[in-house]
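Thread: "does anyone have the structure for this chain?"

Original post by V.I.:
We have the sequence but no experimental structure in hand. Need at least a predicted one for the grant figures.
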Amino acid sequence: MKKLILSISIVCSLLSTTVLYSQNSVEEINLTRYLTLESYLFKIPVEKNVLVTEIMPQIEHKKQELAVHFPEKSTIEGPYISQEVKESLIQNWFTNYPGEFHNYISYLEELIRSYH
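Reply from O.Q.:
Generated one for you, tokens below.
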């Protein structure tokens, strides 16, 4: 049941992204898609300890493999990094490396689905 609900929510998210396509640029759609998946990572139904010690390191390892040009963590996270700067750096990444973006996003979608 949880897999069905998650699948429906991902499909709805993708459909809403498709509907918004006529109103937004591809960059805005991709950014929304990335940020949505990023937020779903923290909703994976596991204990926080498992998320921090197992899942997040697994994601970081896979990111190094699939998204070698992804912005360095220190440039997109931290108390002095604004959301606008983070979004701009991520947009530059997927604009310049669309193959990496699509591979990494596909991996995140698959990972999230596997936990629901």
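V.I.: this helps a lot. The mean pLDDT is 86.
O.Q.: and Helices lie at 2-20, 26-41, 48-66, 73-76, 83-96, 98-114.
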